Amino acid sequence: MALVGYARVSSVGQSLEVQQEKLGEAGCAEIFAEKRSGLDTERPKLAECLRYVRKGDTLVISRVDRLARSAKHLLSLVSELENKGVTLKVLDQSIDTGDAAGRAFLGMLAVFAQFETDIRKERQMDGIAKAQEKGIKFGRKPRLTTEQEAEARHLRTTEGWSIQRIADHFGISKGLAHKATSADKS
Of 39, 83, 34, which Cα lies nearest the Cα of 61? Predict the structure, then answer.
């Protein structure tokens, strides 16, 4: 019966140290840690951790959102652990799936976590829409200005320049030069 820890942060700039400390203080002999987005389906350390745990072990995490990317994913992982005879313990939310109350609370918490994620996405989309209404552009800055595109079309049609010469002149690829000089600009 071993306590096995799993820690995850979303980005390279974040630190795993706080989670690892909590897991160590909880008595975890083995800790699997990685810097990956929760939305990333490829989390090698989580997969390794799930292969490592055995019947009678307890998987310990600091918070529910460190383990799963959605309520469905969380409940799937908990089911996988239960099938192996492994319980889940969540330190910050005081959850232990070793009893019925812990399993019920985990299910409710997963639903609320999913709700919070959905609300956050809606707010983000609203913010993006408002920014676009104000004329804020997203994505990569165009390589050529409108004036440069007009000049490129003029050089091609009036001056007879080749696509390669136009590309060299503006320091762009031949494909972009061809696109900039084409008559259909939709």
Answer: 34
Give tens-digit pLDDT for 103-147: 888 878 778 877 888 898 999 999 999 999 999 888 888 889 889
Asked if 181 contacts 153 with a C-beta cutoff of 8 angstroms, the reply is yes
Asked if residue 82 lies in contact with residue 27, where contact means CB atoms within 8 angstroms, the answer is no
pTM for this predicted structure: 0.62
Of 113, 122, 180, residue with least CA distance to 152:
180
Residues forming the active site: 10
H or E segment at 144?
none
- Main-chain phi, psi angles of 59, to 5 degrees: -85, 125
CB 163 within 8 A of CB 156: yes
Distance from C-alpha of 36 to C-alpha of 11, rounded to nearest angstrom: 6
Q: Cα separation of 56 and 149, whole Å?
A: 68
- φ, ψ for residue 35, nearest 5 deg: -110, 95
Which SS3 state, helix, strand or coil, does residue 96 take? strand
Asked whether the beta carbons of 45 and 9 are under 8 A apart, the reply is no
| Cα 32 from Cα 6, distance rounded (Å) | 5
- Give the sign of the dihedral formed by CA 54, CA 106, CA 69, CA 17: negative
